[in-house]
Amino acid sequence: MQEKPLIVKLCVSFTLIIFLSACANTTRPGAVGVDRSQLMLISTSEVNRLSASSYNEEVQKAKEKNILINSGPSYERLKRIANRLIPQTGAFRDDTRDWQWQLALIESPVLNASCSPGGKIIFYTGIINQLNLSDDEIAAIMGHEIAHAVREHGRERVSQAMAQGALVNIAMAAAGSYGSAVSAANQVAQYALVLPNSRQNESEADAIGLELAARAGYNPQAAISVWQKMIKATDGKKSLEFLSTHPSGETRIDQLTALMPAVEPLYKAAPKPGPHL
Ligand SMILES: [Zn+2]
What we know:
- 58% of the residues lie in helices and 7% in strands.
- It contains twelve helices and six strands.
- It has helices spanning 6-22, 44-64, 73-85, 125-130, 135-150, 153-163, 170-175, 178-194, 199-215, 222-234, 241-245, 252-269, and strands at residues 23-24, 38-39, 68-69, 102-106, 113-116, 120-124.
- A four-stranded mixed beta sheet has the order 3-4-6-5, with helices on both faces.
- The longest helix has 21 residues, at 44-64.
- It starts with 5 loop residues before the first helix and ends in an 8-residue tail after the last helix.
- The chain binds zinc ion.
């Protein structure tokens, strides 16, 4: 067999080195055991920068329309839950304590909630009011959303798109004209913030979210009741914005049920939120 030229061998090794060094696990497995190597071809800081600017834009728009709620009982309730959940992310990674966490509540009938990369949480009043969510259920949804950010699923989706050649080369675009850099930023934002997550990412966010809620003293069983409420509210149709970005597998509730024994002891041991008058 003919020996491969040195240059080919070097190229193969170089490519392997790039891919191996780009594979990372963004979180520790926790009690729920999420353990998978993720392909990362773009920096956390770049994705978080885009995420922050998209969050600021959305909050600014809400402010202009006079639908941004930043005081009062609904906002304080949400803030209390966020303040209990956020510190629990330390069980999965150390740097979240340095994130610039933000929380916005927007008055809108939209049944949606999100946490963008870097810890930018948005809730719409629609999902809380129309599903009549309990604190435990809000914690289940918020925990799930925070888990996507903690696990850097947005950054991972951008990286997968880059690996498949679906995105223009970000580095080249950044070095090029302003127009191509803007276009690259828009594409990154689309992959990181808008497109639906894969079922695998959904399962990971369910698992980590469940543990975050349990550690924060919220009943993990609420993760099941909240999905049942959502399925009922959609009446079999994918009309909920939340479900359009969070594909709901038939096995979702089964998977959550299977994880309960891992998180119940954490819930039992956790200090519980007190009554709020
Ligand atoms: Zn999700």
